[in-house]
Write a structure and sequence with these properties.
By secondary structure, the chain is of the alpha/beta class. The chain is 26% helix and 33% strand. It is built from 9 helices and 19 strands. Strands 5-6-7-3-8-9 form a 6-stranded mixed β-sheet, with helices on both faces. Strands 11-17-16-13-14 form a 5-stranded mixed β-sheet. Helix 4 packs across helix 5. The longest helix has 16 residues. It is globular and about 75 Å long.
């Protein structure tokens, strides 16, 4: 049985007219009377659908990510879930106690202290005072606002409000947890604590609805994601695939054409190709990936180099590859052409990444053209490892002389890697 049911829900709003005088109000009321009672199925003048025929279900231990551009209807959906808004039509059902954090300081009384607001929020969630008191220290410790817990929350910064709000929502034993992008106001360390706490709740079977522009967090945390735009579902499926659809819809490719007059050579296109040569924004750990850099040279360019950098969406530098380091000579580039970088087995773990592509001078120091973090892609995998890269490995279980491999995931070295390791071993033996 689903803990959260959102069935055929629609919500419409009016691009309101504000009547500041009786002269404006009387004609408006007359027009409204002529139109008759509003119809839940149609739009009147100046009305629009913020959410339209939206349906999803979330069961025990599931985490649903909701992504989409600004104005897509994400915040309206959460306000409908938490009963701040009533739907125009459709059915919403949530089983159990809801822990929600959808706005900074939402539900806090500004004149009450942090301590008093903890008890207030617990009472709103239907918890007895003794139970709130039992969990009070854990809430305050998690939030990190111990020094200001007896200060009115109107004196808190947005980050302090978010920390205390999340700590309350996640520690008062919710049956369903609903979290908005509000976590973005916290620092990196606190965001990591929040993600770990949400993982703990998921492991206990508590459903989670998570709205965020942090696409990497959606991939790492959620079991499923929906992409909404203009209030309707555009995609429903695996988180990384939803992110790929989002990026594909919003990406503005660089303009292909001739190199500008002030550049002797320019990157005209970068394609990310699957093993069959098809362009794709979605790749799989351990499978091939080809990065094709198209160029146009206005004049012959002797011995240039091509460089590729890969960053995580949070800015972490994952890899840097260029033809100079690999002793690869491209010769002279003239007219139009492309250079392929083929990765036989992509070692990146599930997440969101961006590619920078550059054409460098013969020394590999100056950029003749550079497209920084302009080409996003996502990675999916059935593996559940943490971090950014998958390291091929094997486990061994030994019991006396009966040691035997427990799992076969050993790495295969290339001839070049094997020669390098052999050279290191020789130097160590001589030293």
């Amino acid at each position: 049985m689903s803990a959260v049911t959102f069935e055929g829900v629609s919500k419409k709003f009016r691009r309101g007219e504000r009547h500041d005088s009786l002269r404006d109000l009387v004609p408006a009321l007359f027009k409204r009377a002529l139109r008759g009672a509003p119809d839940a199925q149609t739009l009147a003048d100046q009305e629009f659908w913020a959410v339209r025929d939206l349906s999803f279900k979330v069961g025990a231990g599931e985490a649903l990510g909701i992504i989409g551009p600004n104005g897509a209807g994400k915040s309206t959906t959460l306000k409908l879930l938490t009963k701040i808004l009533r739907p125009t039509r459709g059915r919403i059902e949530i089983r159990g106690r809801v822990g929600a954090l959808i706005e900074v300081a939402a539900g806090f009384h500004p004149d009450l202290t942090g301590r008093e607001n903890v008890y207030l929020q617990g009472a709103i969630m239907g918890m007895p005072r003794t139970e709130i008191a039992r969990k009070f220290d854990a809430i305050v410790d998690f939030s990190g606002v111990q020094e200001f817990i007896d200060t009115p929350v109107k004196r808190y910064s947005s980050g302090m409000n978010a920390r205390l709000g999340f700590a309350i929502a996640a520690h008062l034993d919710p049956d369903v947890l609903i979290i908005d992008e509000v976590l973005s106001v916290g620092d990196v360390g606190f965001q990591e604590k929040c993600v770990n706490r949400m993982r703990e709740l998921l492991a206990r079977g508590i459903p989670l609805v998570f709205v965020s522009h942090n696409l990497s967090a959606v991939i790492q945390l959620c079991t499923r994601a929906i992409l909404i735009d203009r209030g309707a579902v555009q995609f429903d499926g695996r988180p990384a695939e939803a992110v790929a659809e989002f990026r594909k819809a919003r990406r503005e490719p660089i303009a292909a054409g001739a190199a500008p007059p002030d550049k002797p050579i320019a990157i005209t296109d970068v394609q990310l190709l699957q093993a069959d040569g098809e362009p794709s924004p979605l790749f799989t750990t351990g499978r091939p990936m080809t990065i094709r850099v198209g160029y146009h040279a206005r004049e012959p360019i002797r011995q240039p180099h091509v460089a590729i950098d890969i960053h995580g969406v949070d800015g972490v530098y994952c890899a840097g590859i260029n033809t100079r380091m690999d002793d690869c000579t491209l010769g002279t580039l003239e007219g139009r052409g492309y250079v392929d970088l083929t990765i036989a087995k992509l070692s990146l773990l599930p997440g969101c990444y961006t590619i920078s592509a550059g054409i460098l001078d013969p020394q590999g120091l100056g950029a003749l053209d550079l497209q920084e973090r302009a080409f996003p892609f996502s990675v999916v995998s059935d593996r559940r490892d943490f971090g950014f890269v998958y390291l091929e490995h094997q486990w061994t279980h030994g019991n006396g002389a009966d040691a035997r491999p427990a799992g076969r995931h050993e790495a295969r070295l290339s001839p070049r890697q094997a020669r390098s390791l052999a050279a290191v071993a020789v130097r160590e033996e001589r030293g």
